[in-house]
Design a protein that fits this description.
The chain is of the alpha+beta class. It has 2 domains: 232 residues, Bira Bifunctional Protein, Domain 2 (BirA Bifunctional Protein, domain 2); 83 residues, Enolase-like, domain 1, CATH 3.30.390.50. Helices cover 34% and strands 27% of the residues. The strands form 3 sheets. The chain has an 8-stranded mixed β-sheet, with helices on both faces. The chain has a 3-stranded mixed β-sheet with strand order 4-3-5. Helix 1 crosses helix 9. The longest helix has 17 residues. The radius of gyration is 20 Å and the shape is globular.
Length: 324
């Protein structure tokens, strides 16, 4: 695997690194790539999450915490300079294989430090039952990207107050607060954060590639999309019906439905689930015009394998979410 390196020590905002992932995935030869990055205090919410449901925006603004949306699914996370962000780009298009391979690589790298790290669920790495790393996935044409956190000495006060996951998510994990669910790696190792980065680079990569000035200019052009209000906040429109439910093994769902004459006029699905197909054309557009009842929705989704659009989702689970 090739370690991608920036030519100079410079502080970039989070969207630069997300754009860097896209650029490497789209422009570099088909092989595995890895890089690490750090940012000033920032909240990053998933592609399909509602900002108001996941982020305490007032707390973020009052404490200088930036807020950005990413293109991968999954939940809301907090990052700062005492947290390492990890990015893995691969030609593999097999979602489960890619995710599992990446998670095992990180788990093994931590275990070589004498840390009893274990993968858990679909996207977490735990130490002593507490999360030290959360990860998300998204797919580009002929490329897959996995990126995630590594909590070294992260400000847990900011994390707990800036992110506001729902009570149902916390209860499903058997904890009372964000603080109780996470831990930091500095409690288990004596390495500095820079030494930890060197360890990951050595364990995961066997070559390196330095970005050029032209690479950086191209990345900065891609970066601009992430700053637009349309991308950060989305439409977040008001709907007449809201359904919320957590589906084990899939994620948390917030379904917003505008119904007229007993039929679905508009529908939006938000949450921390993973999208692996075209949700608009394969699911949402098919539901528009259908009556909000089990039989009509089942007919609208006839022939669709929901698990090819949202990871692990069964059609019956979606139908029950919308109609119960």
């Amino acid at each position: 695997m090739t370690h991608i390196i920036l030519p100079e020590e410079k502080e970039y905002r989070l969207p630069f690194y997300l754009a860097m992932e896209e650029y490497v995935a789209r422009e570099f030869p088909a092989q595995d790539y890895f890089f690490m990055w750090q940012v000033k205090p920032t909240v990053i919410f998933g592609r399909n999450q509602l900002v108001e449901s996941e982020v305490d925006t007032d707390y973020c603004r009052n404490n200088g915490i930036e807020m950005y949306r990413r293109k991968s699914g999954g939940g809301c996370v907090y990052a700062d300079m005492s947290n390492i962000m990890l990015s893995y780009i691969t030609p593999s298009s097999n979602v489960n294989f890619t995710f599992n391979r990446y998670m095992l690589m990180i788990e093994h790298a931590l275990q070589k430090l004498g840390v009893d790290a274990r993968t858990s669920g679909r996207n977490d790495i735990l130490i002593d039952g507490r999360k030290v790393s959360g990860n998300a996935f998204y797919h580009l044409p002929s490329r897959s990207i996995v990126h995630g956190t590594m909590l070294y000495d992260t400000n847990l006060e900011h994390m707990a107050r800036a992110t506001t996951p729902s009570d149902s998510k916390l209860k499903s994990k058997g904890v009372d607060s964000v603080r109780q669910h996470v831990t930091t790696l500095n409690k288990y190792i004596s390495l500095s954060i820079e030494e930890l980065k060197e360890h990951f680079g050595h364990e995961l990569c066997n070559s390196s590639r330095m970005l050029t000035a032209n690479d950086i200019l191209a990345i900065e052009r891609i970066e601009q999309e992430y700053y637009t209000p349309e991308f950060i906040y989305g439409n977040n429109p008001a709907y007449s019906i809201v359904k919320e439910k957590r589906i084990e093994g899939v994620g948390e769902f917030h379904a917003s439905i505008d119904v007229k004459d007993s039929k679905i006029r508009k529908i939006n699905l938000a949450g921390d689930f993973f999208i692996i197909g075209d949700i608009d054309s394969m699911l949402l557009s098919r539901l528009k015009g259908a009556a909000l009842e089990k039989e009509a929705i089942a007919a609208a989704l006839d022939g669709i394998d929901c698990g090819t659009v949202i990871m692990n989702l069964k059609k019956e689970q979606l139908i029950n979410l919308l109609t119960d």
